[in-house]
């Protein structure tokens, strides 16, 4: 077979398609990595006009109320002062399906929250899983291609899905989560939400900690069987959307209690897992959940397109007291999400009512398609200036952080893809394990190449021998001798 070299769009050979260029193993990512920027920018423009991912979704308005003051850890006002209320909007979604796809498919659910704070909008763009399939944004376009339709058949392609996963062992933890019971939530109201990434909180004294977000459903977590999910998908593909709307309309307001895990800043250098690896979780024994407040959804949208379809979220929409971590996947999302909205909705998407902050906006951005406000009028349009235009606020500069290492395309520090996946498997009850194995076997049977199945079986076996053996038996195969 002739080997074809992978190239950029301008024909230059690609030296590394697995690792983005960072300053040292923990980053941050470098803007000089033009291949990473090309992949992400091109990927954002591959679908018109629906979202390239998370196309099918439902949304609601509500509020967040602080129940435990967090000013010790962050100066972000929405988390300071017991009783502080912040209006918010949330969008739930499936990841891989198109705008008209069924709600009850096995897929992660997007859990994107927009807080309209007195310091600007803060977007927490997470999922109903605390982890993800990959840990470097350079792999995201390829991963999503496997979840979309085959360009030849225009059908979903399980061979592509499992080929990618088997060649990306860091996906094993999330695959185990997705193929388990929580891959099919009973309703949007009966699932947890997670920020997934690690973020940085900074208090008024400039002291920083690392943080992970957990929205725990006050209704409890409930799931549905694969048989029920398939039946509902055929009978009412908008089941989750309808359930959420009706619950709020009937004043059965769903709510979630927000907790955080907090890691002292310096402990990130010594923790037994890379705390910035989004395929890993932090032990609750090491970093217990701390209650922050309660989110309540109490108002349905008046117009789906204006409020849900045109809602735009970006993990880079921070407010003072909340900053990014060196998480490679997060670093890529900081660019990709806002860029996708500039393409899909327009350069002035933040002027739309659903996205517009409650605080006044003062900047020197002008013009662009669909500019529908005063466009700055006749005010000064550059900075620095001598005419009293808006100026920077030095006390809100991001906190400095040390960057060391060679600028190179380098893998994450750890290649332990199996410990936490195995721990998750062993946490499941016997019945849950059986359903997990049956789901995986059913999903892998259509895979065309046996070598892909055997490669994936080795990953399951490395996580837990029973896990791999049961999947192999279900597929009529044996665990490869070299992994035993």
TrEMBL record:
Q: CDD domains from the entry?
A: catalase_clade_3 (cd08156)
GO cellular component terms attached to this protein's record:
cytoplasm
Q: Where is the Catalase core domain?
A: 7-391
| Annotated region described as Disordered, given as residue ranges | 1-26
Q: Where is the composition biased (Polar residues)?
A: 1-23
Give GO terms: molecular function aspect only. Answer: catalase activity; heme binding; metal ion binding
What keywords are annotated for this sequence in UniProt?
Heme, Hydrogen peroxide, Iron, Metal-binding, Oxidoreductase, Peroxidase
What protein family does this chain belong to? Belongs to the catalase family.
Q: What is this protein called?
A: Catalase
